């Protein structure tokens, strides 16, 4: 959706549609453009002629065309009204501009992606149709223009306003990313105000679906001021969801400082400044240090160092004054938020997050654009039958879901009652959250170069040094770096045989109490546990005979530690231990353990040497000292994602 006028849009009455005055003004404007001596490259949107006053669809429906709302590089946008009086925005693309199959596929992909979106902060897709000349995409109308129009009038915005805007934008982006959609053209001009002054993300012309199993896209695209450095790095590098995060930082900077951070008269210079991360904060602008800290982190050249949507919301900047809503007066004047108390702001912050789908969210199924979705039934037509008006059939296929956790989330989405969470699940989620909070603190400390690390490494963490997955029959067996042997049985209970070879713990995973442990002697087990004891003894002998330890060093014995939960996926195996540490064994045989509530990282090399470091020092150094080959940033990002996934209850 495109909107370039200087005033908020007014919904047209029937008498105003196609008025002679409007057409004369438009003709004078067009004439003025023709008389300009400087010749510019013709936009594809110029091929889109003004639609007839009455637009007739192939199905017989009629729409009355109103005034032009504006134009972009590929399309023009008009107000149109149906026979019930409802007014929409019609993104209009000339068929003459669809010159080849690639262009057609791009258009159909845009329609498919946008049609699959359903979020309060995304412009609602209404319908699409074609006549002999144009293709029309009907969208909800946003009569109060865009963030770009607002910034042009106001020059600068206040921080409370921008906080409110950022929550709504983040809500929309997190939703898109949950569907594995990258927008790739987020900018002030593509974010619009609805009648209640809520923001709506629009224009999915450059959006792409990242299929499951693929981590990057390689098309170089975007708007110069907003393009992320990894896009400029070329097709050999590729880009992913983080390009949308980068755009958030650019927009936040522009709203607070009046212009984008890398702006220049020449596009080439803009690109060079982006590559060099060459920007600064004007000293004459009264912007808080907390806002600058967030912008700095988002505009990290390395995409893996940019905070995620959830991490952005944890920044101190959001603890400032926060309005519950924004009045229309902001379109012309600076609002006063001095009345807001900290308690009111905190409640408003929560309420706006909730309205934007950021509180108690349910993960959405990713979408998949099928080749069959992009095929027309007749060569002369642009739109396939599946996209014609009145067809309520699903326009995209949901990915097949087999993960039990995902099934549970989907069951919540369709209003069925999911199983109750156990006490153990709550404890594990809390420990994941505590570790994430510790990581966030370390990341902030790492950026403050003047501070020194206060973390003292007093002991080595307990590690899973050997393991055998025999869950198809008994369970998951492991040996710890304390030389204790454990089996996590398929029923969730654990038997842990201590290194002395005599004492054992039998640990019951109780849904109401958590973990309950009883002590026994291995040679004098109750009759009901003898079978479990035999299995532990079997795996004890097997691992000692056949497997090597992951580390050459043993851990000091303190409190007894056992494996609470494990997760196997393609990039790694994740172990969650009862002392609150998390171990990740990666496929390339490098291993990382994060302990002490996210403040200490232990690296275990393929040669089985183990070294522990304060996380702050690793972040400042840029990786594990002496081991740059392990790609720490990439692995660290995967670890945070895994913790974040398990911290959601």
Automatic annotation (TrEMBL):
Its EC number is 2.7.11.21. It catalyses: L-threonyl-[protein] + ATP = O-phospho-L-threonyl-[protein] + ADP + H(+). SUPFAM superfamilies: Polo-box domain, Protein kinase-like (PK-like). It holds the Pfam family Pkinase. GO terms for biological process: mitotic spindle organization. InterPro entries: Kinase-like_dom_sf, POLO_box_1, POLO_box_2, POLO_box_dom, POLO_box_dom_sf, Prot_kinase_dom, Protein_kinase_ATP_BS, Ser/Thr_kinase_AS. The keyword Cell division does not apply. Keywords: ATP-binding, Kinase, Nucleotide-binding, Repeat, Serine/threonine-protein kinase, Transferase. CDD domains: POLO_box_1 (cd13118), POLO_box_2 (cd13117), STKc_PLK (cd14099). Residues 63-318 form the Protein kinase domain. Residues 26-60 are annotated as: Disordered. One of its GO terms (cellular component) is spindle pole. ATP binds at residue 95. Residues 463-545, 562-648 form the POLO box domain. GO terms for molecular function: ATP binding; protein serine/threonine kinase activity. It is an enzyme of class 2 (transferase). Belongs to the protein kinase superfamily. Ser/Thr protein kinase family. CDC5/Polo subfamily. This is Serine/threonine-protein kinase. It comes from Saccharomycopsis crataegensis. The lineage of its organism: Eukaryota, Fungi, Dikarya, Ascomycota, Saccharomycotina.
């Amino acid at each position: 959706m495109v909107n370039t006028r200087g005033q908020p849009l007014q919904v047209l009455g029937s008498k105003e549609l196609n008025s002679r005055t409007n057409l004369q003004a438009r003709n004078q404007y067009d004439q003025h453009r023709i008389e300009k001596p400087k010749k510019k490259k013709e936009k594809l949107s110029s091929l889109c002629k003004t639609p007839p006053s009455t637009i007739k669809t192939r199905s017989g429906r009629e729409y009355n065309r109103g005034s032009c709302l504006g134009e972009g590089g590929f399309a023009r946008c008009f107000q149109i009204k149906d026979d019930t009086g409802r007014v929409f925005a019609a993104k209009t693309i000339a068929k003459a501009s669809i010159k080849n199959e690639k262009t057609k596929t791009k258009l159909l992909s845009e329609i498919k992606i946008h049609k699959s979106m359903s979020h309060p902060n995304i412009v609602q897709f209404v319908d699409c149709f074609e006549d002999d000349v144009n293709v029309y995409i009907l969208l909800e109308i946003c009569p109060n223009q865009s963030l770009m129009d607002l910034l042009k009038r106001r020059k600068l915005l206040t921080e409370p306003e921008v906080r409110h805007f950022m929550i709504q934008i983040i809500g929309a982006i997190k939703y898109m990313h949950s569907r594995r959609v990258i927008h790739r053209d987020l900018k002030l001009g593509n974010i619009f105000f609805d009648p209640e002054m809520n923001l709506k993300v629009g224009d999915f012309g450059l959006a792409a679906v990242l299929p499951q199993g693929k981590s990057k896209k390689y098309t170089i695209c975007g708007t110069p001021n907003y393009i992320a450095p990894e896009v400029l790095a070329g097709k050999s590098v590729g880009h992913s969801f983080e390009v949308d995060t980068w755009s958030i930082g650019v927009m936040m900077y522009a709203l607070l400082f009046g212009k984008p951070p890398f702006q220049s008269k020449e596009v080439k210079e803009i690109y060079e400044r982006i590559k060099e991360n060459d920007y600064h904060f004007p000293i004459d602008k009264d912007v808080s240090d907390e806002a600058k800290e967030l912008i700095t982190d988002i505009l990290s050249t390395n995409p893996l160092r940019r905070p995620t949507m959830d991490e952005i919301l944890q920044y101190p900047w959001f603890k400032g004054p926060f309005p519950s809503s924004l009045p229309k007066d902001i379109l012309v004047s600076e609002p006063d938020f001095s009345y807001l108390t900290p308690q009111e702001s905190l409640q408003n912050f929560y309420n706006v997050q909730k309205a934007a789908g950021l509180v108690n969210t349910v993960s959405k199924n990713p979408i998949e654009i099928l080749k069959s979705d992009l095929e027309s039934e007749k060569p002369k037509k642009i739109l396939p039958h599946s996209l014609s008006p009145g067809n309520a059939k699903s326009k995209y296929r949901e990915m097949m879901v087999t993960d039990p956790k995902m099934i549970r989330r989907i069951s919540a989405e369709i209003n069925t009652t999911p199983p109750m969470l156990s006490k153990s699940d709550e404890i594990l989620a809390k420990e994941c959250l505590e570790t994430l909070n510790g990581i966030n603190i370390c990341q902030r400390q790492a950026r403050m170069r003047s501070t020194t690390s206060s973390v003292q490494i007093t002991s080595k963490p307990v590690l899973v040094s050997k393991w055998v997955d025999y869950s198809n029959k008994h369970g998951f067996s492991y040996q710890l770096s304390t030389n204790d042997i454990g089996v996590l049985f398929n029923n969730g209970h654990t038997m842990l045989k201590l290194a002395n070879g005599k004492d054992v713990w039998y640990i019951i995973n109780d849904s109401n109490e958590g973990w309950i442990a009883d002590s026994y002697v291995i040679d004098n087990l109750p009759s009901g546990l003898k079978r479990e004891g035999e299995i532990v003894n079997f795996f004890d002998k097997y691992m000692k005979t056949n497997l090597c330890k992951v580390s050459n060093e043993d851990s000091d014995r303190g409190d007894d530690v056992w494996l609470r939960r494990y997760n196997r996926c393609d990039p790694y195996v994740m172990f969650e231990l009862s002392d609150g540490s998390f171990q990740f064994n990666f496929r390339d045989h490098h291993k990382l353990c994060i302990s002490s509530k996210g403040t200490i990282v232990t690296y275990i090399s393929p040669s089985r040497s183990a070294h522990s470091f304060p996380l702050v020092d690793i972040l400042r150094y840029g990786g594990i000292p002496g081991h740059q080959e392990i790609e720490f940033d990439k692995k660290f990002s995967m670890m945070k994602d895994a913790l974040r996934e398990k911290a959601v209850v």
